[in-house]
Amino acid sequence: MPDSPQPLHIEDIHLPAPIGVWPPAPGWWLLLPALVLLGAMAYWLRKRRFSPRRLALYQLDTLEKAAAMSDSDKVKGISVLLRRACITVYGRPETARLTGEAWLEFLDQGLKDRPFSQSIGRVLLDAPYQPDFQGDLAPLFRLCRRWLKQLPTARS
User: Fold this and answer.
1) Alpha-carbon distance 51 to 37, whole Å?
2) Where are the domains of the chain?
């Protein structure tokens, strides 16, 4: 009789060990710095784009280049722009109530030569109320640009 077949000795299937959470796959290592970089870039762009100083300087340039506006309207626009910038940076309670000489003295803070209360800035007191004001506004625009550039970036 032929040899009886020997039973096959088959081993059980061995599954690989389950994949653990650590260490992460290489793609996660690449994604982590990319997310950090993206977050930092978004923060920087937001701070840069929505700066009250930057926006006010842009609006001042637009106002200065507006050929269709009269000088009186430009002075009114400058006055409104400075008031809005102050309210945005310093807060409404401190600046909204200021008028006349007190307003000009507030604008003089941080400027050694007191140009608003002692010089060209005095135009802001009377010119907005004169319908036919004519004058050289270039020094006033330079003064306002200088003032806006020294404006703090955040509310005090």
Assistant:
1) 21
2) 51-149
Is this structure's pTM higher than 0.85? Answer: no
Phi, psi torsion values for 22, nearest 5 degrees? -115, 135
Hey, what amino acid is at 56?
A
Exposed / middle / buried, residue 92 (Cβ in 10 Å: 0-12, 13-18, 19+): exposed
**How many Å apart are CA 117 and CA 106, to the nearest integer?**
9
Residue type, 21: V
Q: How far apart are CA 107 and CA 25, in angstroms?
A: 58
**Dihedral (CA of 115, 120, 126, 131) sign:** negative
CB atoms within 10 A of CB 140: 24
Residue appearing with tokens 């930092």: 40
Q: Give the tens place of pLDDT for each residue, 83-122.
A: 999 998 888 888 888 888 998 999 988 788 889 888 888 8
How far apart are the C-alpha atoms of 140 and 147, rounded to whole Å?
10
